[in-house]
Amino acid sequence: MLKYFFLVFTIPNPTVSNTTNSNFYPRTHKMQSTSPQVTLISSDGIEIQTTHSAVKKCVTLGTMLEILDSSKTAGKPIPVLGADAETLRVVMRWCEQDLPSTTGQPDDGKIQLWVEEFLTKLALNRDLFFKVINCANYLEIELLLQSALGMLARTIENMSTEQMREYLNIQNDYTPEEEAEIRRTHAWAYEETGEVSLQNPDLHI
Question: How far apart are CA 198 and CA 25, in angstroms?
């Protein structure tokens, strides 16, 4: 349920970051370089060059290539309507790495270090981070989706309710009376974080 909850956020006016240049994300792990090149077209019409092996890690695209007649699709650009160029470049950087294609924690220490560094830097740009999560879900890249959601959970686990709402762009549609009633009914949840005191149940979130 958590997986799908985090995929419905609407980020207003996403900012374009310069952090997606070639030096931003780590290259400490060996990249696939012998696979044939494939051209992807982002939702904003930008061509992105990647490898056939990277594309195959995207279940959505891999299934499409298997279904379509290869003689008619060979060498032709593949439209990816669910991601803009900035997002698609980051996602393909992930797919071009020699990473496991299935979910679960990688066993190789170098791979774990690369994944952690990649996600830590990505999380610094909140808007891009959420777009990558949505793109990973759209393209069915299981390991990226699982890893990114794990990083998101670690990012917000110590936040107050107000901080979570701001970070996740969730509007507070409760009235003060409804908030007070929720706090009275679920006081245990607020006691643990120290966010609300039982002696002051009317404190707004």
Answer: 46
